[in-house]
Every structure is written in structure tokens, then in C-alpha cells.
Design a protein that fits this description.
alpha+beta, Jelly Rolls, Immunoglobulin-like, 4 domains, 6-stranded antiparallel sheet, disordered N terminus
């Protein structure tokens, strides 16, 4: 009888604790890792106000306050208190106010105010010490109405949201007194060109009879209203497409307002709506431009969408056209309109067979609701619930300044609708693009990042303060340094790695995201790993070329299994063994083939079974193609059984497909003994594209033990 190797008795390791420690390494640098001298200070001035808020901790924090609430004609001092955990020598200081206020920059760090859309804006440069510093300037109230004062600081030397801060305060200005807070939901618009008639006593004569030389007016009995709507962002004027247009009318001076016609703006922001007039003439008409359209809606915290109103036109007869003119919103509404207009970009990319978001919507659209209101500091998250009516995106005050942010959060809502309101419910908490969280969170966040970056065409994520990060980082993590925006964690638990991988596939293998969007409407996934294996259902590439693309983003899917070399301990695997014994571990008895961990089945010398299982599934072949799915692994087998003895101790390779368990030939046994590791392959093509589990099952008889050592297990796909 051959002697067993020395120290053959297994060491009982606490795998759970060890695996947790191994996982934590991916989340933070080792305690002994030396940080470079220029490593960023750990920021802890968190601005998150709820568990759903994903705002990263910042080194800066700002608070804006008014010393008093100014009435029309009054001035007031604005105080911007900035807390800082780092000293910053050159910090951009920016303030903005809406139309009811004006900035008095004299004696402050600010330059002369300039127009910024409907806002007034002033900028300056300051330095910040470690600690607190209060910056001041004055404002004058010049008109009644809701107003906002906002201020932001941004370290000019650091491109990161961790070195910026923003805050705002709202006031409703009155003639004799003012009150805190403001409502921007429904306000008069500002006419770029207007044809409103503001005097109801200026009665109009009936229209003249038409002649053959005149341009035809509205049909008899009808009134036609035309105009447009636009807003300005970063100095650029944007026409608003797909906005709701409502024509409100008064039949008489004493009647109630009623909606006489509705429509929506065209791609160029214009509209032309004709309707049968309920009275002739109509005493008054007014156009309402709204942030809704039956597919998406931007609303306030009271579930009301924003409206911008035209001037009123009086005494309009049938058979005439009213050119209501082109309007822009008041400054306090501009972010609501910017968020609404940004949604047009996602709508254009939706790849739906109907006018709604997905193929599932056959009886009306599942509206995406976006909550935004001035001063809100609980935001940038998507709340998935069982229906469209209860699910919503919530944005912070300044979030619409980043179209990437709006698209990212709305992409979650789109993803939810593609899954027909099933949601994987990943555990995300506070997550960051470059930091490992978990595979579920990285999948949902990575998809949203990828879609936003792809739609914008810059492959980035941009924060509202203008700082950004490229999603196409292909540099591997350097364990000698701390995790940072320039030293990302590796793998598919990192949302930035997932996003970069998806963009890479869309741009270089898939011809864009359309096939992925279709795939997600038929199949649901909880991880990027599952998504990649499902790609074959939509005839998307699964060959080594695409796997190499992922590998360049530090995601190693050159094979299908997770934790295939067991280096993460128990992660993705489950087992059964006598007592509390472990199947995965690191022992002195045998050397691993690679790394430090391996799997050990059998080895007891009495009638018992041990098993090792992973529910990995198998890749789906592209449509119309076969392809081969191959299981491979390295085994080392030692046995007390005599050489040439019958196969008393066996190792079966099993595929578990629902309730069906199939053993794949050939099985291994004590007859398969070897002095070192032997490479084994098995054809799993019969289960191609199925959600199956892979199981190694050892069965020993009553005497003579056999050790089955396994390492570096792979399931790979190759097209024929």
C-alpha cells in the first residue's frame, strides 16, 4: 500500500471569514499598502441625506443662507460657508440668481455679473484653508416672484466631485415682505417673440373676407395656434421637442378656463394646433408649455409637472391663426426643462417597436417620472417599484446640469421597463464608479453608466459640477497604492469596468446597443456575467475576441465560471462534505496548480460523498450557429487503492438542468491517479444556452481513500 502524502489530514479552515477577507481586498487597499505622497486626502464631508443618495463623500461642504429675506427694492447679504478638509489655493467660486434678484458683486470675490440663460451669474477665485471660510456678496430684490440663490465651489486643480460643493436657498419676493421657500411649478414664460394681446378691452374686428390672393387662415369654425418653446443652457439655445402644449380658453369674461386643445412640440420645438372653437370669438386664449408628454414627465415634489405660460390673447375669432410666439422658461424652471429635454436623447436610443419605451407596453406607455425641484438635496437615484406609477427617478437641485446624470438615472428606469418591472434588487448603498461593490450593483449601475456615456458620445460620466471620469479605463489595479479615480479596482464587481466593457462591445462588436436592448427585453440578468452569457440569444459575439475586449477592462471572462481558480475562497461555489469540512481551501498536502487555493473532494477512506457546485449556466450560441461549449479543468488524483484495482472511488462530472442530473462521460476514479495535474475536457454543448449548474461529485466506498484535487476550472465557448 502506498503511503499517503505527509500531513494528508485536512486543515479545517473558516472559509467564510477567509473569503470575506479576500473579498474586502477588492474594496479597499491593504492596511500595509503604502500610499503615494500625492494620494488624495480621504474625504468624509458626506452630503448624502438618505441611504438612496449615491453622492460620494466630499472634501468640501457648502451652505448658502440669506441674512434676511429681501422685499422688492431691498438688499441682503448672502453668506456661503465652506467647510474644507484640504487646503486649496485656487478654487472657482460661482454664484447664480434668478430674475427676481440681482447680484451686487462690489466688495466681494466675484467679478461682474453676466447673463446665463435666464439667470444672472458671477464668478471669482478664492483660496480655502483647512477648516471653515465664509464668503459673502449681496443681492437686491428687483421684482416680485419666486427666486433662488445658489453657490458652488470647485477646486481648479482637481477634476473630481470630491473637491466641489454646491448649495442653494429659495425665497419668494414680495412688495412689502418676503417669505422663505419658492414654488417654480407654474410661471409665466418669457417671450422671445410674442403675439399675445394683453388688453381685453382692445376688441378685435372680425377677420376680413378671404380673397384668392390671401394665404388661407384656419378653416371655418376653427382656430389655429402656432408657436415654439426653447431654453438656454451653457449659453446655447435648445429647442424643446415632445413637450405638452395645452391651449386654454375662456368663452366669456365670466366663464371658467378650460382646455380647448392639446398637442406637443415637434423636433424643432414648434407646434401648430388647430381646434374647433366652443365660442366665436373666444374671449381669451393662453398657451401652456408642460414638462410631460405621456412617455416621460418631470414633476415637482407634489407630483405636478412644470408649466410655462404664454401671454393671454383676447377676442380670437374662428377662421384665424394665432402666432403665439416662441417662449422660454423663467430661470427657476430651466433645470426642469433641461432634464425634460435630455430625456429626448434616451427616447431616441430606446430601440422600441412602438412609441413607448419597450415592446412590453401595448396598452399605454409606462411613463418615466422624474422628480426634481429647486433646493432638493436628496437625489440622484432611481426607486424601482412594481409599477410605473410608483417608480421614479429623483434628481438633486443641480443634477440636470449634467445630462449624463439625468441619462444615467433614467437608464435605470428604462432598464426596469425592459425587464417588464422585474428588478434584481442589487445591494448598492453608496457606490462609486471606480470601487468594487458587488456583481449585482456593478451590473445595474454599469449598464446605466454605459448607456449615458454611449448616448453622449464621450464614453464618460460627468458630474453636475463639470468634473468627469472616463469609463474606458484599461489600467489594472496597482495594489501598492490606494484605490482612487486613477487606480480602479479590477473585475465585474466594479461598475466602471462593466460600463467600459459594454461600450467597447457596442462600438467594436455589436454595432451599437440596440441588440443589447432587445436582449434585455426578453431575458433578465442579475449580473454582467449573466448578461454576457446571454448575448448569444441575440446573435452577439461570444468568441475570444469579445472576451479579450472584456479582459482589457480587467474582466476575465476568457472562461464562463466565476472564481474558477478558487482564489476568492467560497465565492460563487457551494459544497457538501462530512461535518464542517471544507472543500475549497489551501492545504500543505498538495500544491495548487496556480495561485494558493484549490478544491479537494474525497479523501476520507469510508463510505461518503462530497460535492462542489456552481450555477454558472452555459453560453447561448448566436442565432443560426452551433458552437461548442467546453468544460476544462486540471485534476490531481491520489489513491490508497491498489494500482489496477477496480474503480471503487469515483468522481462524476454532472450537469444539473432543473430536476434532471446528467453525468458526463468519462467519470474519473482511483484508476485515474496521477503524480501531477492532468488537463481534462468535457463537451457541454448539449446544454448550450441553458441555465444549468455544474457539479463535481465524489463517491468513496467503505475503505481505502482517494483524493480528487481540482484547480483552474473553465467553461468556454467557441463558434464553429
Amino acid at each position: 500500500m502506498n503511503k499517503p502524502p505527509l500531513s494528508w489530514q485536512r486543515l479545517r479552515l473558516v472559509i467564510a471569514a477567509t473569503a470575506a477577507a479576500a473579498t474586502t481586498i477588492g474594496l479597499a487597499p491593504a492596511a500595509t499598502a503604502a500610499a503615494p505622497s500625492n494620494a488624495p486626502t480621504k474625504c468624509s464631508l458626506a452630503t448624502a441625506v438618505s441611504i438612496r443618495d449615491t453622492t460620494p463623500p466630499s472634501c468640501f461642504r457648502a451652505h448658502v443662507s440669506l441674512e434676511r429675506l429681501p422685499a422688492v427694492g431691498d438688499t441682503a447679504t448672502v453668506r456661503v460657508k465652506v467647510d474644507s478638509q484640504v487646503a486649496a489655493g485656487r478654487v472657482d467660486f460661482t454664484v447664480r440668481v434668478t430674475e427676481s434678484l440681482e447680484i451686487l458683486a462690489a466688495g466681494s470675490a466675484l467679478g461682474a455679473p453676466q447673463a446665463d440663460g435666464g439667470w444672472s451669474k458671477a464668478t471669482g477665485t478664492v483660496s480655502l484653508p483647512v477648516g471653515s471660510k465664509t464668503l459673502t456678496f449681496q443681492v437686491r430684490a428687483r421684482a416680485e416672484g419666486p427666486a433662488q440663490v445658489e453657490a458652488g465651489v470647485n477646486d481648479a486643480a482637481v477634476n473630481s466631485p470630491e473637491h466641489s460643493a454646491f448649495d442653494s436657498t429659495q425665497v419668494t419676493v414680495g412688495k412689502g415682505s418676503s417669505r422663505a421657500g419658492a414654488d417654480f411649478t407654474s410661471l409665466p414664460g418669457k417671450a422671445a417673440t410674442s403675439r399675445g394681446v394683453s388688453n381685453p378691452k382692445a376688441q378685435q374686428a372680425p377677420p376680413p373676407a378671404k380673397t384668392k390672393y390671401q394665404v388661407a387662415l384656419a378653416p371655418a369654425g376653427q382656430i389655429c395656434v402656432n408657436g415654439g418653446f426653447q431654453y438656454t443652457y451653457s449659453g446655447v439655445t435648445h429647442n424643446v421637442a415632445n413637450a405638452k402644449i395645452s391651449i386654454h380658453g375662456l368663452r366669456t369674461a365670466n366663464s371658467a378656463w378650460e382646455v380647448v386643445a392639446t398637442g406637443q412640440t415637434a423636433a424643432n420645438g414648434t407646434y401648430n394646433i388647430c381646434f374647433w372653437a366652443p365660442a366665436n370669438p373666444m374671449y381669451a386664449l393662453q398657451v401652456s408649455h408642460g414638462t410631460t408628454n405621456g412617455v416621460w414627465e418631470v414633476r415637482n415634489n407634489n407630483s405636478q409637472y412644470y408649466t410655462s405660460l404664454s401671454a393671454v390673447r383676447y377676442n380670437t375669432y374662428t377662421g384665424t391663426d394665432w402666432n403665439a410666439g416662441t417662449y422660454t422658461p423663467y430661470a427657476g424652471q430651466e433645470r426642469a426643462w433641461h432634464a425634460f429635454d435630455t430625456m429626448n436623447q434616451l427616447y431616441s436610443a430606446r430601440n422600441s417597436p412602438n412609441g413607448c419605451w419597450t415592446r412590453h407596453e401595448t396598452n399605454g406607455c409606462a411613463i418615466i417620472y422624474i422628480q426634481w425641484w429647486a433646493g432638493n438635496n436628496d437625489g440622484h437615484f432611481y426607486q424601482p417599484n412594481p409599477s410605473a406609477a410608483t417608480s421614479y427617478v429623483r434628481l438633486k437641485d443641480a443634477d440636470p446640469d449634467s445630462e449624463h446624470m439625468v441619462l444615467h438615472e433614467a437608464a435605470h428606469a428604462f432598464h426596469h421597463r425592459l425587464y417588464n418591472f422585474w428588478w434584481p434588487n442589487p445591494t448598492c448603498g453608496t457606490h462609486q464608479i471606480h470601487v468594487a461593490s458587488n456583481m449585482g450593483c456593478a451590473w445595474t449601475e454599469g449598464f446605466a453608466n454605459a448607456l449615458a456615456g454611449y448616448i453622449k458620445g464621450d464614453d464618460r460620466f460627468v458630474w453636475p459640477d463639470g468634473s468627469w471620469i472616463s469609463l474606458m479605463n484599461t489600467t489594472w489595479f496597482n495594489s501598492s497604492y490606494a484605490v482612487s479615480t486613477t487606480n480602479w479596482n479590477n473585475g465585474d464587481a466594479v461598475e466602471g469596468r462593466v460600463a467600459g466593457s459594454m461600450i467597447n462591445l457596442w462600438r467594436n462588436a455589436d454595432g451599437g446597443p440596440n441588440s443589447t436592448i432587445t436582449l434585455l427585453s426578453y431575458y433578465t440578468q442579475s449580473t454582467f456575467f449573466e448578461y454576457f452569457n446571454d448575448r448569444g440569444h441575440q446573435n452577439l459575439d461570444l468568441t475570444s475576441a469579445s472576451r479579450t475586449r472584456l479582459y482589457s477592462h480587467t474582466i476575465d471572462y476568457r472562461q464562463v465560471l466565476g472564481n474558477n481558480g478558487f482564489e476568492s475562497g467560497a465565492v460563487t461555489w457551494s459544497w457538501s462534505a462530512p461535518g464542517t469540512d471544507n472543500v475549497i481551501g489551501t492545504w500543505n498536502t498538495y500544491a495548487p496548480r496556480t495561485g494558493t487555493w484549490y478544491a479537494w473532494l474525497g479523501g476520507y477512506g469510508y463510505d461518503t460523498t462530497t460535492s462542489l457546485t456552481q450555477g454558472a449556466g452555459t453560453p447561448a450560441a448566436p442565432n443560426g450557429k452551433d458552437g461548442k461549449v467546453t468544460l476544462s479543468f486540471w485534476s490531481r488524483i491520489w489513491s490508497e487503492e491498489a494500482v489496477g484495482a477496480d474503480p471503487y472511488d469515483i468522481l462524476q462530472i454532472q450537469v444539473v438542468d432543473g430536476a434532471t442530473v446528467t453525468s458526463v462521460a468519462p467519470q474519473l476514479s482511483n484508476q485515474s491517479r496521477s503524480n501531477g495535474y492532468v488537463f481534462r475536457t468535457y463537451d457541454l454543448s448539449a446544454w448550450r444556452g441553458r441555465n444549468v449548474s455544474l457539479r463535481f461529485m465524489s463517491d468513496e466506498d467503505a475503505t481505502m481513500r482517494t483524493d480528487f484535487i481540482i484547480d483552474d476550472v473553465q467553461v468556454t465557448y467557441n463558434q464553429n
